[in-house]
Write a structure and sequence with these properties.
173 residues, alpha+beta, Transferase(Phosphotransferase), domain 1, two-stranded antiparallel ribbon, two-stranded antiparallel sheet, 6 strands, 16% strand, EC 2.7.11.1
Length: 173
């Protein structure tokens, strides 16, 4: 990992979040290294990289491969299934807080896998809203209630907002 922040709390949070999951649309953590300043996550192989390179024309990581509407639809449904699992399928609800094309990895058949759980928050399933000290996420994908409490409480619906923003980017390219 290039950016080492703080005492490794974000890194350990990611390991804890991913290790609690087992779903076709969530990355599988094969192992990790946490020795001093050396930190690494080992995922299953993702030969197609991130969704980002398939939807942004002219980006440095862009490929010349264009995804058809059927494939984009299947990717969108897969991501939604992964989010539904994080919100309802796990013993503890996992709020991702960073759903964006860069954090959606694609296997060889373009099956999407949600990755990068560094900003995730684990909370009890029975709790509908959570409290946070500071905003989490990427500008443009952060739900309004995450950075301004007057819009309402922070919940799993914050991920749904980010998902919607990402779908708009998938359609608009």
């Amino acid at each position: 990992m290039k950016e080492l922040k703080g005492n490794g709390e974000e890194f350990l949070n990611e390991v804890a979040s991913i290790s609690r999951t087992s779903h076709v649309n969530i990355v599988t953590l094969k192992g990790f290294c946490f020795e001093g300043s050396k930190r690494a996550l080992i995922y299953e192989l993702m030969p197609n990289g991130s969704l980002e390179k398939f939807i942004y024309k002219g980006s440095p990581s862009s490929s010349n491969y264009h995804l058809g509407w059927d494939t984009l639809y299947k990717i969108a449904i897969g991501i939604a299934r992964g989010l539904e699992y994080l919100h309802r399928g796990c013993n503890s609800r996992i709020l991702h807080f960073d759903i964006k094309p860069q954090n959606i990895l694609l296997v060889e058949n373009f099956c999407p896998k949600i990755s990068d759980f560094g900003l995730a928050k684990i909370c009890p399933r029975e709790k509908s809203t959570i409290s946070m000290v500071s905003a989490r996420g990427t500008t443009g994908y952060i739900a309004p209630e995450v950075f301004c409490r007057s819009f309402g409480g922070i919940s799993h619906k914050s991920n749904v907002y980010s998902y919607g923003m990402m779908i708009l980017e998938m359609v608009g390219g």
